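Researcher: Re-running this chain for the archive, since the previous output was lost when a drive failed. Same request as before.
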Amino acid sequence: LILLPIVATCQTEQKKAYAYLGGGVSFPTNSVGDFLKMGLHGQVRLGIVAGPQVELIPGIEYHSLNLKESFSTVRGGRLNILMIGGGLKCFFLANKNDSKPFVEAGFGVAKTNISDLSVPGFAYVRGTSDIKPYVDVGLGIDLVSSNSATISISGRYVSIMMEGDDVTFWPITVSVKLL
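Model: Regenerated structure tokens:
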């Protein structure tokens, strides 16, 4: 009975949710990488504590990729992706005050939008938009930097399940985890 108030106090001091604000670069792969160059992305995620080493990570992110320079006569053709989803982030080999490596996996829906394409004086192709499911898996590390913030660095493989070739890319993200 003497330990009960101590255990209750320790449990109430641990925060149950965190905000992640981040951005980085996105590297297209498979046939998408033949036409598009590296792009930029931003994201806002929550980290909801689900266990001692597990977080639920719902979030939203936006990616923008442009045509490669080898298609200089083509105008437009930007691929914009808005993703809404969630997943699990599992920490390993860590204690409370150290850097925390993690694996993560998730799923959600992605709205892809390809802007209109044109070759001046030759052709015009109307852009397309679609909503499809996606899955992702990745690795990263949370680097404890202060009592109020942690830097998180991660790399993920994302696959948007399109008809025909999937849209796949590697986002590399640096986030600030607000404590």
